Amino acid sequence: MTITPHGSLKKAPPLTIPPRQAARLPESDAAAGGLFEAIQRGEAFETVVHEATRGEKPVLEVSNFNLWYGEAQALHDISLVCPDGKVTALIGPSGCGKSTLLRCVNRMNDLIDSVRVSGDMTLNGESIYTAGVDVIELRKRIGMVFQKPNPFPMSIYENVVYSLRIDGERDRSVLDEVCEQSLRGAGLWDEAKDRLQSSALAMSGGQQQRLCIARAIAAEPDVLLLDEPCSALDPIATGRIEELIDELKGTYSILIVTHNMQQASRASDYTAFMYLGRLVEFGPTDEIFLQPRLKETEDYVTGRFG
Amino acid sequence: MTITADPPPAAQAAGTPKRPRKKALRTTSLFAHGEPMVWLTGGSLVLAVFMIAGLLGLVLWQGGSTFWPGAILHVELADGSAYLGEVASKSSFAPEESRLEALSDEVAERARTELEANGGLVDRFQLRTENFELTNVHYRWIEDYHVLDRSLPEWALLVERNTWGRFYGTPVAFRLDGATIATEPDEVWSRFQEHHDKARARYHARQSLETHEIGAVNRTLEDARLHMRAAELAEGRDSERWRRAEAAYRAAEEEANGAFTRIRREIDALNTENGRYELVLETSDGVEKALALDEVVRIFPANQLGFGGKLSVYLSRWWEFLTADPREANAEGGVFPAIFGTIAMTLLMSLVVVPFGVLAALYLREYAKQGTIVSIVRIAVNNLAGVPSIVFGVFGLGFFCYVIGSSIDEVFFSAKLPNPTFGKGGVLWAALTLALLTLPVVIVATEEALSAVPNSMREGSYACGATKWQTIRRIVLPRAAPGIMTGMILAIARGAGEVAPLMLVGAVKLAPELPVDGVVPFLHPERSFMHLGFHIFDLGFQSQNSEAAKPMVYTTTLLLIAIVVLLNLVAVWIRGRLRRRFQSVHI
């Protein structure tokens, strides 16, 4: 597949998908091998966006976003609106660009030299990618939790108040309060309150992940990014995290990447299905899982594909 | 059990050519098991451990036994001569026939008998006879066939002196004011014991007067002279300032002369008092020798000592070795200045090399864009570790001493010129030179430690809105600290054992003053210093009495190893504490 930057793909004839098509592609497309094959060939198509997503107040808007690792394009023309106070799940097979998209929101991909992007994202209407954006300040408004728990090599207390420490906060009472609130928010207070000064690395994996969530919400971010937060955890710890996501919903807008269909259907309000760097279908979770517009989406969420 | 790979005849008879191949039961081959590799790897380890243990054992044994007092042997030879001393070593050799022919009949007969009994070899021993001012030799080889009689005289004394080395003899008299007041050995011995401590105290008082008091007067005088010289350099001899400085110098000179006279008188008084006592010893040749009591460091009748007595001599020699200044051109006495110099130089070096190396490694690993240039820099740094250390010495001398040191002299110490202050070897320049030498070790170890910090931690920190520097300072550096300490340990081990460059940039045979003392400004980084490694070289190869210095080489080596181990243990302990802080259970 040869890809040239900046949308020469768009010149290819768009794959037209009838808006109310029920899980079947037209015969002509089927002859061409279906939507996935079309994507593999590099043909452009339009994302199927359910109308139900349009009424919400957006917190994060992604518009025509492209990303390249060196010469290889990893994200193609992504447009997505994350509603305020809701949980949006990104699903799709491995390598489809979910995590890459997530890491673009707080510009973690800036750390990789070979990355180039085009298009824009806005957080509460403010652009993330224009020149002059203070990346450090941006990241303070966006919390992120990674796939593997990554507590810092310091005490539980210092882990939680890390974002305040780097802001130079010295007031003990403020730090104590934020620490307690965040740990309560992450459902870890009862387990950790007696060992705040012991090393965070001595906690169990599930506790460490909740600690990372506490650390992320300590800065009171606008958006919380969760990058497969449960992939390294056992089912019980996963259950705790999902409960937590439910509790945090409303207070925070959450964007979660997951490989677990049940998790996406249980925990999220909206679901975006991605494939090979393209956003295929985006809509309310119920609709995506019960009445997807595209057969490919149905195949994927029911486990017949991927 | 016989094992065969062929299919059983029954299977062949069945005539099914495409059956799945049945694997016959057989033992795994030797190479598949890897047994030889276990032996190879284990054997290599054993060999390495054996060599290291052998070296350490040799140093430990030789170094540890140096100070143990041996018996004093009295031998009478067939030619009528007699010797008194300690047996230093023994060996066997095959004498040439001409050598036997030169002997008297009786001795030659004995030699031939011994040769026959020992299969063509005769024994000989090396006797440490000393009494150098009388005999001009320290050691003598004596063939067994020469010896008529051996004995361990009860009153054979071993005298360790400030000068002229050891003395072996038997006491014959104790003189007070020139008059003999005791002649019996035990009486002489008790008289000596009565007066020796006091004489030594007076000796130390004199030493203190000669070094500290006179030194202090000289310093004030020198200060005054430097003021005068500075005034002359700044404003010339016609100026008011110079005249004032000159007047001050004259006054200081006046005062110093008074002080010198007073100190001289005190010294003379001490000398006169010490001159009253004399211990007279008789050598094995029957020569009498009078020894001044204050010259005697240690004296003991070796053949009378039990285990306790020997142990006390042993410990007192060790104590002297660790705490006293050297005497006898370093071959005897202590190595305290060298211990001090080694530790001071090593600590100063660590103080320079660790921050410097860590900063360099931080830039290389965290900030620099990884690419060709960084790779070249990294290779260059690694190659720096392969440069012969003497080259660093030459560089240190040329750059630190002659360029930087001379510039400092010109700016700050111009009054002292042409005498260099910083423009010569000194402990500071030595530490900087060795810091340069050990820099690659620290950089490489730090880079390793930095790259071992999981990227997920860095990302977590960035995601919290930390800047790069905040991430490095709060996450990366603490986490890498144990690895950095490892680098420091390696640097200390390398730096403390290095000698060659030090010979050029400040290590000396005998340093009159320590780099740290009570004289303002207390730290004297420009002073040259003594170093244990250089001391070993000096003892082993530059000593006039190399036989006597040989055991000291081992002892000093033992001490140097002990110091390096001690410094390392401290660093390891700190590293252990750091590690415990970041102990991880789940990652």
Q: What brief labels describe this structure?
A:
A: alpha/beta; Rossmann fold; 11 strands; globular; disordered N terminus; B: alpha+beta; MetI-like fold; six-stranded antiparallel β-sheet; five-stranded antiparallel β-sheet; 18 helices; flat
Per-chain topology:
The complex is a heterodimer of chains A (306) and B (587).
Chain A: H1 27-32, H2 34-40, E1 48-49, E2 58-69, E3 72-83, E4 87-91, H3 98-105, E5 115-123, E6 126-127, H4 135-140, E7 142-145, H5 156-160, H6 162-166, H7 172-185, H8 189-192, H9 205-218, E8 223-227, H10 235-248, E9 253-257, H11 261-267, E10 270-275, E11 278-284, H12 285-290, H13 295-302
Parallel strand pairs in A: 1-11, 4-9, 4-10, 7-8, 8-9
Antiparallel strand pairs in A: 2-3, 2-5, 5-6, 10-11
Chain B: H1 9-14, H2 30-33, H3 35-65, E1 73-77, E2 82-93, H4 97-101, H5 105-117, E3 122-128, H6 132-135, E4 139-143, E5 147-151, E6 157-161, E7 166-176, E8 179-182, H7 185-235, H8 240-275, E9 277-282, E10 288-292, E11 296-301, H9 307-323, E12 326-327, E13 332-333, H10 336-367, H11 372-384, H12 389-412, H13 427-451, H14 455-463, H15 468-496, H16 500-505, H17 532-541, H18 546-581
Antiparallel strand pairs in B: 1-2, 1-5, 2-3, 3-4, 6-7, 6-11, 7-8, 7-9, 9-10, 12-13
Helix pairs in contact in B: 3-18, 7-8, 10-13, 10-15, 11-13, 12-13, 13-15, 14-15, 15-18, 17-18
**CATH level 1 class label of the largest domain in chain B:** Mainly Alpha
Determine the fraction of residues in helical runs of chain B and give it as a percent range.
55-70%
The largest inter-chain interface, given as chain pair and residues per side, is: A-B, 35 and 25 residues
- What count of helical segments of chain B does DSSP give? 18
Oligomeric state of this protein: heterodimer
**Anisotropy-based shape of chain A:** globular
